[in-house]
Specification:
The chain is α+β, with helices and mostly antiparallel strands. It is 50% helix and 10% strand. The chain has two domains: 37-132 and 291-432, MetI-like fold (Orthogonal Bundle); 156-280, no CATH class. Helix 4 runs parallel beside helix 8, helix 9 (325-333) crosses helix 10 (338-366) and helix 12 (387-396) packs antiparallel against helix 13 (402-432).
Length: 433
């Protein structure tokens, strides 16, 4: 009976016939685009003038592409590491909980969502308005629990009134006060919605030589019929404002305005200047600017981790299932605690699987595009730029340069190839064992 090699040599044309369709398809979809892109990268914007390696020099001198390079480094270092770590933690957890199948389903479910759909979801999650963005709704709720917002963030002194704005946001009464003489502290600019339910302001009581009294109120009557710097019957009180008596830069007494806007300070306030504390007018906390220039890249990486941690978990869980239980039990019998078993036995055994996950994710993040295109607003997209997005903008948007775009594509290929070669060699070594 003829050997397999003899059959192949005798009928090599049969082998060619079987491989030819695949080779033609591979050449049309892989080889030709690579060769053409390399050729196009050597020409100018029009494609007619030969510029040699000038387009590759643009990669290292263009500010936007430099930003893309830096962001790609962040992606390569952070995203695979975090995904693999979380995947390892989740995989270990699934062996210790009853509802492991449901847990795996929940964690892996984001993988069923396309990158584009995930980008739209997280664009809404990171919305600045806490009423729309889930992330800021949570952050704002936690912040307001421990640090309540002020009730009158829009209140301001009258332009011709006795109060003067200070650099720290407080309002200072120009003239010192005296015990027994009521102080009037008028404010304006409070919008009607904030005044709903406010009680009418009350004239401060006078004549008590042991106290400094006064009123803080909204000095405005609809229709303009009221008197400036005087408490009119239709004007609402501003409750909950902290009034401080200040002497030589130190607070000697303080009080909070009641529902009718009045306050009363002890005799120590005599001769002091009254100050309305800045925290009474602080703007409401509006959450974190997730998609601002400083946080946009970590925010997008977070959305990627949400999607791909499930992928890492499934691969690592499969490797964990093949770990010999006898080895783990032997380590426990020898006195190792669970952390030592995990660190010195489980992780080393899983090292090949962890290597597969990390390398796969590294290759994946090098060509990340969809999330960076969809999630950032126009104002911060340049700060979130990555090589794949820079390639797209240079090649297919108005004002772009396909020569530079092709150079970026070649550069991106050169970055991916070493990782792929390493992965192939590692797989071959694993198969020989």
């Amino acid at each position: 009976m003829a050997s397999g090699n003899a059959v192949i040599k005798a009928r090599s044309w049969v082998v060619v016939c079987f491989l030819l369709p695949a080779l033609l398809l591979l050449g049309a979809l892989v080889v030709y685009p690579i060769v053409y892109t390399l050729w196009r990268s050597l020409f100018d914007k029009s494609g007619e003038g030969f510029v040699g390696l000038e387009n590759f020099g643009e990669i290292f001198t263009n500010d936007d592409i430099q930003t893309a390079l830096r962001n790609n480094v962040i992606w390569i270092v952070v995203a695979p590491t975090v995904c693999t770590t979380l995947g390892l933690i989740f995989a270990v957890m699934t062996e210790r909980i009853r509802w492991a199948t449901a847990f795996k389903l929940i964690v892996f479910m984001p993988m069923a969502i396309s990158m584009l759909a995930a980008g739209i979801i997280f664009r809404l999650v990171y919305e600045q308005d806490p009423d729309r963005g889930v992330a800021n709704a949570v952050v704002t709720a936690v912040h307001d629990t421990f640090s309540p917002t002020s009730k009158w963030p829009d209140a301001e002194p009258r332009p011709d009134g006795p109060l003067t704005p200070q650099d720290d946001g407080s309002y200072l009464l120009d003239a010192p006060v005296a015990a027994g003489e009521p102080a009037l502290l008028p404010l304006v600019a409070v919008p009607p919605p904030e005044l709903e339910g406010a009680d009418p302001a009350k004239e401060p009581r006078a004549g008590d030589p042991e106290q400094v009294t006064g009123t803080v109120w909204m000095d405005f009557t609809p229709g303009g019929e009221g008197t400036d710097n005087a408490v009119d019957a239709a004007e609402p009180a501003l409750a909950g404002i902290t009034v401080e008596a200040v002497k030589d830069g130190e607070v000697v007494a303080s009080d909070t305005t009641g529902d009718d806007g009045t306050f009363a300070l002890p005799a120590e306030a005599d001769g002091a200047q009254l100050r309305l504390a800045a925290d009474s007018f602080a703007a409401p906390y509006n959450g974190v600017d997730w998609l601002g220039p400083s946080l946009v890249t970590p925010a997008i990486v977070g959305s990627y981790v949400w999607m791909w941690s499930g992928f890492a978990m499934v691969l690592i869980a499969a490797g964990l299932a093949s770990v010999p239980r006898e080895t783990l039990e032997a380590a426990r019998v020898d006195g190792a605690n669970e952390w030592q078993v995990f660190r010195r036995v489980t992780v080393p055994i899983l090292a090949p699987v962890l290597g597969v996950v990390v390398v796969t994710l590294m290759i994946n993040v090098m060509k990340i595009f969809d999330l960076v295109l969809v999630i950032p607003p126009t104002s911060s997209q340049a700060d979130a730029n990555v090589l794949a997005l820079a390639l797209y903008k240079e090649s297919f948007t108005s004002g772009g340069n396909q020569g530079v775009g092709s150079a970026i594509a070649v550069f991106l290929l050169l970055l991916v190839v070493p990782v792929m070669v390493y992965n192939i060699r590692r797989l071959r070594r694993e198969n020989k064992r």
